[in-house]
Write a structure and sequence with these properties.
single chain; alpha+beta; PH-domain like; eight-stranded mixed β-sheet; 8 strands; 31% strand; globular
């Protein structure tokens, strides 16, 4: 079971998802106006990540011949400016919910990261680090 950590920023709230091994595997793609909406974002990660894995909805933006566009919700794999593989998770409304914390040297590593998000977001623990801030 993974862990969502909710933090306060200067303009709102965000979250990070940690795997069982305590490695940060995903971060929120946006800043939420309230703690409640941030927690709903965390819940959406669990809901949509599992659905995307079950339905094979991983859009690969790195293909040379072009990408087959998938409907949302979906994971999207892309190359960052450093040439590393990264992922984003989109909700059914098309908004990006979370993205990889780090770039991966291989597409296989990125795919393992996606699977880890799906596995670790299910029944995850919530840690609220906003009380002291």
């Amino acid at each position: 079971m993974g862990k969502f950590v909710i933090n306060k920023t200067k303009t709102g709230f965000n979250f990070s998802l940690f795997a069982v091994n305590k490695e940060k595997i995903a971060v929120s793609s946006q800043v939420y106006a309230s703690k409640a909406s941030c927690k709903k974002g965390c819940e959406s990660v669990g809901k949509f990540a599992e659905k995307c894995i079950a339905e094979g909805k991983i859009e690969d933006q790195t293909l040379v011949k072009g990408t087959t566009k998938l409907t949302n919700p979906k994971f999207e794999i892309y190359l960052d400016k450093a040439g590393l593989f990264r992922y984003r998770l989109y909700a059914s409304n098309g908004e990006s919910i979370c993205m990889s914390e780090e770039g991966y040297k291989s597409k296989a590593g990125c795919l393992n990261g996606i699977k880890s998000v799906a596995a670790n977001s299910q029944n995850a623990e919530y840690v609220d680090e906003t009380a002291d801030k």
